[in-house]
Here is the input.
Amino acid sequence: MLTLYGQVMSRAQRTLWLLEELEIPFEHVKTNQNAGESRTAEFLAINPNGHVPALKDGDDILWETIAINWHIANKHGAGSLWPSDPMQQAQVMQWSLWMTNELEGLLVDYLRHAMVYPEDKRDPAKVEAAIAAYPLAMKVLDDYLQGREYLVGDSFTLADLNVASMMGLVDVYKQFDNSAFPTATAWLEKMLARPARAKALART
Here is the structure.
């Protein structure tokens, strides 16, 4: 049995969505990082970094959503969300890492400093930097998706899920000007409309 620690409105949403796509039974331990629940001694024994999500698979523990999702997809989604072709597997990794390196950080900075943190904790420079950097990453995504329905191959894979999930977290992408990126925006909205994502969001 898999046990996932984390709340929906966090990076854990990425894994909740995957588990719902694969229809895998699991236990969801709602752990609110913002309320300090990831800093308890009990949770730090699971993830000493004090972040969510964390996954228990039997006696094994994993941190970091990308690693967690690679493991789950490889174990339970082989041939579908995790392609069987080695090159396509590498492309799934490529886009997952692209998201964490090129887009995720600026989205998180924007969320924190424009929407989440109290006024006295916000840094306007981080918001401005996110707004400036967003089009650079989105152009890469929009250009790549010309003539494509999905990021890898001809069907929905872990690559689409890993990229779309963070862009859709509290609809943060709507805070930016996407008018120059119609293809990427259409792709994103199609991914976010998947029924499994709605099931994940219902776990609030």
Notes: Residues 47 and 187 are 34 Å apart (CA to CA). Helices lie at 12-22, 41-44, 65-76, 86-116, 124-144, 158-167, 182-192, 195-201. The longest strand covers residues 2-5. The chain has a mean pLDDT of 95.
